[in-house]
Amino acid sequence: MATEDAVAKSTGESAVTTIVNLAEEAKLAREGVKAPGHAILSICKSLVAGGVAGGISRTAVAPLERLKILLQVQNPQNIKYNGTISGLKYIWRTEGFRGLFKGNGTNCARIVPNSAVKFFSYEQACSGIMWLYRNQTDNQDAQLTPVLRLGAGACAGIIAMSCTYPMDMVRGRITVQTEKSPHQYRGMFHALGTVYRQEGFRALYKGWLPSVIGVIPYVGLNFAVYESLKEWLLVSKPFGLDEDKDLGVITKLACGAAAGTVGQTVAYPLDVIRRRMQMVGWKDASSIVRGNSSIQSPLEYSGMVDAFRKTVRNEGFGALYKGLVPNSVKVVPSIAIAFVSYEVVKDILGVEMRISD
């Protein structure tokens, strides 16, 4: 009898506990607070969306990405091509179709986690900045300004770039090497191991400082311009946009294209310096990017300022914008495709939080 009473008591307590838990979950749901499992799933979906967006956008413009890097480090006394079309033709003629996509596998291996972390970090930075901004202004309806979006984008860019920088470093070397290079990196992991063994851990972060400085205006302006343009279009409804409809894919592509153009133009010289610094210490870099000219000095820079000074002194100010044309042709569709792909994939996966929220 006592046993039956104990069981009944235990069952009753269990039922009460279950009801209380359900009531708490219902209360949290009404207040807009998600259960931990739901939050983790939403984070994973957001990361997947960002990764897919990065992979699609970079693969679409891989030939232009490789040409840009080759132009950035090309020997000024042994120029083999000057323009976008002539450069693509030269790569096709000397290395074939595969040459156009050399380094894209490594690039995707880098850009997928980079893009995932970048988009997710941007959303979290926006949420944090919004909370601080509303508490500081005592206005719970306040929205992010373009300057605050710029700050959130800069934070996201620095976090994402720092997490994946070693992969970007070796990707640059793999992209530069050709079939005739004295030494061949067989892939990303082989390149990472070789650089670590021959040049040390710090070599994996060569060019990190100009990357950090450059990513602030680049990624920051990308997000700020994209979000601000979308908000302006939704509020002002120019060009005959419907009053009650969200922006279409074409309009979002145009916003992304404008964002990419502004960001890459401001940050491009730092990207050139970063790429050149990544070649420092590579014993085969001279024969690959400097040609066989005996009067060309070794590729050596003591730091970012020294790299700027030597580049401008030896090749002129225009050298800081080498590869800008193919990069401009590349970055406009790349940024546009990335933003739209991100939002489309999130819609498919059913993620509630949007980049604009």
CATH superfamily: Mitochondrial carrier domain
Query: What is the rounded Rg?
Result: 25 Å
Mean pLDDT: 74
Provide the domain count.
1
- Based on helices, strands and strand pairing, what is the structural class? mainly alpha
List segments where confidence is low: pLDDT < 50 over at least 5 consecutive residues.
1-12, 14-23, 25-35, 290-298
Q: What is the N-to-C succession of helices and strands?
A: HHHHHHHHHHHH
The CATH topology assignment is Mitochondrial carrier fold
Helix share of residues? Answer: over 70%
Largest sheet: none
CATH architecture: Alpha/alpha barrel
The top level CATH class name: Mainly Alpha
Distance between the amino and carboxyl termini: 60 Å
The proportion of strand residues reads under 5%
What is the overall shape?
Answer: globular
Query: What is the count of β-strands?
Result: 0
Please give the count of helices.
Answer: 12
Description of the molecule:
The protein is built from 12 helices and no strands. The protein has 357 residues and is an all-alpha fold. The chain has a single domain, classed as Alpha/alpha barrel (Mitochondrial carrier fold), CATH 1.50.40. The radius of gyration is 25 Å and the shape is globular. The relative contact order is 0.13.
List the main descriptive attributes of the protein structure presented here:
357 residues, mainly alpha, Mitochondrial carrier fold, 73% helix, disordered N terminus
Task: Give the SSE layout.
Elements: H1 2-30, H2 36-60, H3 62-72, H4 84-100, H5 104-137, H6 146-176, H7 188-199, H8 208-236, H9 249-278, H10 285-289, H11 304-315, H12 324-349
Helix pairs in contact: 2-5, 2-12, 3-4, 3-12, 5-6, 6-7, 6-8, 8-9, 9-11, 9-12
